């Protein structure tokens, strides 16, 4: 990893069947961050899926950043972070926020959501992606459970 960051992706996925009522309440109460397993620079990814009863499933930790999904540029002790919207799903975001600038010790939470039609049966799937990213290392395993230095909320109303 060429930049001193800790990255945690949290992806919540559901179907149209659980859009309203009790199901929506359950989904909306799910965590958007988790305690880290360690404080080393790494990329962590957690999935919470309706069809797995929203049980958190951690993928294998990585030391490389997917530059298609996440743009990082470090200059003079400042890190510019840009979450890329690479999903070919609605809603399309034509106007995107500027990169977030972080100093060492700061972190950002960036959220966006999508919906798409499943090709196999025509049903709707939904996803909310939350990026939690700390620059300059972390000392507290629960860093992402607190209040972010910067918050970017690109979530749209999904029908």
Please characterize this protein's 3D structure.
- This is Polyketide cyclase / dehydrase and lipid transport.
- It comes from Lentzea atacamensis.
- The protein has 1 helix and 9 strands, in the order E-H-E-E-E-E-E-E-E-E.
- By secondary structure, the chain is mainly beta.
- The protein has one domain.
- The strands form 2 sheets. Strands 3-2-1-8-7-9 form a 6-stranded mixed β-sheet, with no helix packed on it. Strands 4-5-6 form a 3-stranded antiparallel β-sheet, with no helix packed on it.
- A hairpin with a 6-residue loop joins strand 7 (107-117) and strand 8 (124-135).
- The longest helix is centred in the first third of the chain and has 8 residues, at 21-28.
- It starts with a strand and ends in a 6-residue tail after the last strand.
- The model has no long low-confidence stretch (mean pLDDT 90).
> Percentage of helical residues?
under 10%
Kindly provide the radius of gyration, computed on alpha-carbon positions and rounded to a whole number of angstroms: 16 Å
Helix and strand composition category: mainly beta
Q: What global shape is seen?
A: globular
SS field, number of helical segments: 1
Distance between the termini: 38 Å
Would you identify the regions where 5 or more consecutive residues have pLDDT less than 50? none
Main beta-sheet annotation: 6 strands, mixed
* Number of separate strands: 9
Instruction: Note the beta-strand portion.
Output: 35-45%
